[in-house]
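Review box. Two proteins, two foldings.
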Amino acid sequence: MFADRAKIFIRSGKGGDGHVSFRRELYVPAGGPDGGDGGDGGDVIFVVDEGLNTLNDFRHVRKYCAEDGKEGNKKRQHGANGADIICKVPPGTIIKDFETGKVIMDMSDKKEPVVILTGGKGGNGNMHYATSTMQAPKYAQPGQPAKELYVTLELKVIADVGLVGFPNVGKSTFLSRVTNAKPKIANYHFTTLNPNLGVVDLGDSAGFVIADIPGIIEGASEGIGLGLQFLRHIERTKVLLHIVDGASVEGRDPINDIYAIMDELKKYNIEVANRPMIIAANKMDAMSDIEKETVIDMLKEEFEPQGIPVYAISAVTGEGVKELLWHIHEKVQEAPKETIVFEPEFVPTFDFSNDPFTVEKDPDDEHIFIVEGPKIEKMLGYTNLESEKGFDFFQKFLKEQGILDELKAQGIEEGDVVRMYYLEFDYYE
């Protein structure tokens, strides 16, 4: 089964926690802090694999998690870093945020691996927090949390030319004649369920890549039929080749069909609809000379004044095909050479505050709670607690850092004392 869309969950690794320990050596009765740092969590990395052409693998495995970093250890030992997770995607894959639908990264032009989610940083061990006022810190920094995201992967095939048209107009037959592609061909709607790619070789290094987009029907842009699933594949094409049943084998009006498809393209993406278009009136082998002339004159009179050239062809016999291919080649050469790339619209952001602190009861008095930590010490250094504004900032700081929650968890009651370095205050709700 061809899969060109998948929803997956990605998670980077959590950073390892810093370690709290103190030197314990013979003849060193008061060794300093020697807790090591935690290892960094693994990254979520996406890589383009030229050998892939479908997102099938992501239909079977939907969770991709990097490894967590390991905790630091005593004797200043650094925890091991977590292993990265590498997701291989086919060329043309776009990564979107699932909730907003916005583009995070277009992998089409990426030759190097791309980090989508970085792993959490490992926390500092307590060896980093020794100061003149705190020579034996009992706290270490926790590792940063993992980063999680649901993303949508979309495959938009990379081709120079997109074949569009109603089902059964001969697109697959045309593709099999002019390229080495081997699409399935039969006389019923939606025979083609995959965007088939083929390379047209005109010799002397002339040629282009062409994609047979499965049959688009009226209402495709609103999700009717299967058309909407495949319209995304024409977004990168530089030239549109509209194949129409010139012989009206199924009783359809070729002019109405062309306008119907053009209308669907405009509803889906006006920029795509405005790209150079060529009309190929197919199935000329099923018409008499007089009928051919009448149909071609009618199509040229309608569309060539709009700047859309019309070619009469037969995908079965090859009539008119060579002339059409050389005209397509000229149009492709005139188009910009770069692959159409979708710019990022969404940058995943994660704000983690993981400065360490400790909350513990005074061993000599259970109504005194001692709170310590590097950020607390810094905050007290630049906050004027004598002013109303400064004290409000101080209270907000305690709440945002989770210190008040931790005090409550340890059973603090009204009237108990909170001690922070040189500061003491009574606790009230």
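Next protein.
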Amino acid sequence: MKILVTGAKGMLGQDLCPILEDNGDIVIETDIDTLDLTKGNDVEKFVKDLKPDAVIHCAAYTAVDKAEEEPEKAELINAHGTENIAKVCGELDIPIVYISTDYVFDGCKTTPYEPDDEVNPQTVYGKTKLLGEVAVKKYCKKYYIARTSWLYGHHGKNFVETMISLAEKGNEIKVVDDQIGCPTWTVELANGIVKLFSKPYGTYHVCGSGETSWYGFAKEIFSQTGMNEVKLSPCTTEEFPRPAKRPKYSVMDNQKICRNWKAALHDYVELRNF
């Protein structure tokens, strides 16, 4: 297939594009420097000229806390930008994969979220990503909404590298232990996206299997990197306030699309050591 990837220079895009190419696909990489998704006419012309067989829409405003200060910018990119590309995909009958988030949920459940569970985002980021989902459903018959969570990868700032960096400096580290979710390696998400093309259109949860807290995630990072002498202690969300409210529980049922998060983390650590 000829696949157009937006946000190709992002943390996910940099892992996704080579995986698609290894799968035999022709990949058209775009980012803000080649395609501004907020300009509807430009998006329409770009897609119509290229006529891709599918679009994977990774581009997004992902600064969760800063979005609380810049709601208009977050909405422009996540909602209107997605609407622009969804419109032309729907018009040309091109399948689209839209990368969404666990932040569309309020975190009030105590069992894993299913794709058809009620959404109730509590942050600007979550609300704008949900508006993107709504746009994709409105304009496209052929769509995959891929919700993911707690993303980390070799090509961007992420929790794993932050923890390792703090440990190397000898810092005493406190990590929140009352937020529960699913850590997801970008390579796992990329492979999960490839799997979606063999599934019926619809909404899926493409995240690491299993669950943990941020504190549990940090403990596993230090265990797998051999940094067992780190001074690590748990804390509550109230002890570590952030501008954007985090879901207390955002575990999602991924229908075995991705591996257990600990196995994925093992492979991530192995690769970073080369």
